[in-house]
Design goal:
This protein has 432 residues and is an alpha+beta fold. It has 3 domains: 176 residues, no CATH class; 68 residues, Signal transduction histidine kinase, dimerisation/phosphotransfer (DHp) domain (Helix Hairpins, Orthogonal Bundle), CATH 1.10.287.130; 160 residues, Heat Shock Protein 90. It is 59% helix and 12% strand. The chain contains 10 helices and 8 strands. The strands form 2 sheets. Strands 6-7-5-4-2-8 form a 6-stranded mixed beta sheet. A two-stranded antiparallel sheet has the order 1-3. The radius of gyration is 38 Å and the shape is elongated.
């Protein structure tokens, strides 16, 4: 079994700038305080203790924007504090506060073993300081002399330790809360993904079973009664089977194209073809009956993947057929130099503003779960948009006045295309 790497409770990259700002602020406060006190009291010998504090200040300013590990900064802090303890001498309160600061910062930013090593390191400095002053009369040059000066420095050091420890704890708590928020969001997304997966499995089983059941039923009927059925009835059965087979193929293609698009492995076969001819072919495939109107200019040659163009238009037309009321309009016009816009409009209820981006996400539908009113996977619009962008265009939603929805996508014109012909091929079919 592979051993997981030891991790600190708080990621350093999330707290690097505030943590080093706290270090710099604490060190600066101590340096300024000691210098001011020395100038006011005349106890200049105490200024030697400023040297380790200045080292921490310089390092903290540098590490606000540099470094990926808190270990060097923590080692410098402990070393500087240890030197200050030796210079100060045995004062239990100050030693205790220094150890608390090291324990707090090390345990928050370092793995357990490294944090323990740093705590042992600061304790060793404290022990050395106490032993040095217990068994010798040595007073280092530069140590503050006199109870008044020592008390002032002690109060300043205590204030710095307490304030910086509190700020570090506050920052750690905020970081942990943000991490919990991200975790809660990730769990919510995971639950949503599970719900989508279950709903997708349910939709797939239903959507694929319907054409398969139809094909199987007509196949059994033809196999058993081919010779006794009237020819026109046989032709009708074969047409239904062909239509169901085509519907099944489209469903499977919609399912398979998503992972290829997201993996960037979809191959596009760009060819030149007449826009109006291809559009009318797709419209005739979708609207065998119903009320629709097609207004598309003739002699417009586009250059794109013919199969994917048909897939985009098919998905938009099927959406309009399911949700778009009793009128569907298909039109096309020059959008911008090099691009032609194809629009599919309907007179349905349209899409409310808060759902206009959601419908372009995988498996999302306006009605979901038991409330679903229409068949489908919720893949048509996401597939159409991704295919449009993969082919150098785009797909978007527009609100149709006074009612309805309009989905448009752009397709690249052929470089040699002349779009000066004003003739428009139009067709209107009404329900019988």
């Amino acid at each position: 079994m592979t051993e997981l790497p030891a991790r600190a409770p708080i990621p350093y990259d999330e707290i690097r700038r505030p943590y080093n700002s706290i270090r710099a602020g604490g060190a600066l406060l101590f340096v300024v305080g000691v210098v001011v006190w020395s100038l006011v009291s005349g106890a200049y010998a105490g200024t030697l203790i400023v040297i380790p504090a200045s080292a921490v200040l310089i390092d903290a300013v540098y590490r606000r924007t540099h470094g990926t590990s808190p270990l060097p900064a923590a080692f410098i802090d402990v070393t500087a504090i240890g030197i200050a303890l030796v210079l100060r001498g045995p004062e239990p309160a100050i030693h205790g506060l220094a150890i608390v600061w090291v324990i707090t910062s090390a345990s928050l930013l370092l793995p357990l073993r490294r944090a323990a090593a740093l705590v042992a390191y600061i304790i060793s400095w404290s022990i050395v300081s106490n032993l040095l002053f217990s068994f010798t009369d040595l007073r280092f040059a530069g140590i503050v002399q006199g109870s008044g000066a020592e008390a002032a420095v002690d109060r300043l050091a205590a204030m710095v330790y307490i304030v910086t420890t509190a700020i570090v704890m506050l920052g750690a708590v905020r970081t942990v809360l943000r991490a919990q928020d991200r975790q809660a969001e990730a769990l919510a997304q995971e639950r949503r993904a599970v719900e989508l997966k279950n709903e997708f499995v349910s939709m797939v089983s239903h959507e694929l079973r319907t054409p398969l059941t139809g094909i199987a039923g007509f196949t059994d009927t033809l196999a058993e009664s081919w010779e006794t059925l009237p020819p026109d009835e046989v032709d009708e059965f074969l047409k239904i089977m062909h239509r169901e087979n085509e519907h099944l193929s489209n469903l499977v293609e919609d399912i398979l194209v998503i992972p290829r698009l997201e993996a960037g492995q979809l191959r596009l076969n760009e060819v030149e073809f007449d826009l109006s001819t291809e559009a009318f072919s797709v419209v005739a495939m979708i609207f065998d009956r119903g009320d629709y109107s097609v207004t598309i200019p003739t002699n417009v040659t586009v250059c794109t993947d013919r199969t994917r163009f048909r897939q985009i238009l098919r998905n938009l037309l099927e959406n309009a057929k399911k949700y778009g009321g009793d009128e569907v309009l298909i039109d096309a016009e020059l959008y911008e130099p090099g691009l032609y816009r194809v629009g599919v409009s309907d007179n349905g209820s349209g899409v409310i503003e808060e759902d206009r981006e959601r419908i372009f996400k995988n498996f999302e539908q306006l009605s979901t779960g038991d409330a679903r009113l229409q068949p489908g996977f919720g893949l048509g619009l996401p597939i159409a948009r991704k295919l449009s962008r993969a082919m150098g265009g785009d797909l978007w939603y527009e609100e149709r006045f006074p009612v309805g929805a309009r989905f448009c996508f752009s397709v690249r014109l052929a470089e040699t295309d002349e779009t000066t012909d004003d003739e428009t091929r139009s067709e209107h079919v009404s329900a019988p």
